[in-house]
Amino acid sequence: MRITVKDDLDLYKITNSGQCFRACEISPGLYRFITGRNILYIKDISGEEYELSCSKKEWDGIWKHYFDIETDYSSIRAGIPAKDKFLKECADAGCGIRILNQDKWEMLISFIISQRKSIPAIRSCIEKLCERFGEKLESLGDGSCGDIPETGSLCAFPTPKALLTSSEKELGECGLGYRTPFIKDAAERVCSGKLDLDALDGFSDEELFVTLKTVKGVGDKVANCVMLFGYHRIGRAPVDTWIYKVIDQKYNGRNPFGDYGIYAGIMQQYMFYGAAALKLLK
Question: How far is the C-alpha of 230 from the C-alpha of 32, rounded, in Å?
Fold first, then answer.
């Protein structure tokens, strides 16, 4: 199946934007995304035309929402004021990034793991968890993207029950380190019903922020990441080491995200990607 997307969509930049850790480029121009038990292979054919491994029904029912296709990112970029030259430069570099609608549980665990880890280390840890505790997924594509250069089976992200019933030793062998009890606490809360991740959809931003922080190991940055990438609260702008440097070096210590209101999280992604890609920071 082929689709046309005239708005910003760059699979490479999305995969390397720090918001998703299982997406990958498996051959030149061919990318794999996994959400829940669904696997998508997608290839950029012309800059606007994309070849997909899924049916139209699956694209419309799952992946169109996942890639946030109905949001006009080019218009959001165009709204950046000219006076904010640094952000304009970053947005140009990050053109094509979209905020994915990802699984809430996966985002909670992924960003707990992310603390004090590089992106390659986060990816490695998550893949070990999936291989060891995730359910096997059968399909590696239906052939519509050509030959898929993968063999064997893939695994879904582990369920809360799978992580709760695993031992701390087993989890530690996946590279979790000091984060192991945090993962166990999150799994226990979800399995017991103390934390209903789907029910939190109806919470205000502040209520959601406070509730997520009741999980051990979840501070301001992790809570904001889960809100942005798991709950699509695109007004939330997580502040990590990169963004602290941006605020310090480019905005004289003033957090600029308040200027961008409901789009602050999108601006954060442009800054995160652009600052790294362009090597604009000391």
Answer: 19
